[in-house]
Write a structure and sequence with these properties.
By secondary structure, this protein is mainly beta. The protein has helices at residues 58-67, 121-130; strands at residues 6-12, 17-20, 26-39, 45-57, 73-80, 90-93, 99-112. β3 (26-39) and β4 (45-57) form a beta hairpin.
């Protein structure tokens, strides 16, 4: 038996999307952007964003749909879910024709790091600095 755990912290790139399976189970999809800031060998500041598509199930899915919104900060603990055909991250094509990759995660735990009344201003400011458009979100 093998087992792995992935932990990410990031902000929702859009509002949660909830649906129900035919047997009545709630599932919510979260689009989470996690940023990494570093300085390269030439002294240039780099901001790297990795996108994750997170599936949350059951009562936790309903809570995420109720209390989270675009810009909310979350900590996700779960496991990577590879593309069934390749066993790798899902590859997609951006509107400009360049290639991107997204990582799917099956969440076991979602922790809300933003309070309910938290403004989205800090998220919007970061997004504007990065110049990320809705077309760049892979799903």
């Amino acid at each position: 038996m093998s087992f792995h755990t992935v932990i990410i912290v990031g902000n929702l790139g859009r509002d949660p999307e909830m649906r129900y399976t035919p047997n009545g189970q709630a599932v919510t999809t979260l689009t989470v952007a996690s940023n990494r800031n570093y300085t390269d060998a030439n002294g240039q500041k780099i901001k790297e964003t990795t996108w994750f598509r997170v599936s949350v199930w059951g009562k936790q899915a309903e809570n995420c749909n109720t209390y989270l919104k675009k810009g909310s900060m979350v900590l996700i603990e779960g496991q990577l879910k590879p593309d069934r055909e390749t066993g790798r991250p899902r590859i997609w094509t951006r509107a400009d024709g360049s290639t991107g990759a997204s990582y799917d995660i099956f969440a076991r735990t979602v922790r809300f790091l933003s309070t309910r009344g938290t403004s989205q201003e800090s998220y919007v400011a970061e997004t504007e600095k990065q110049e990320i458009s809705e077309d760049e979100i892979p799903f």
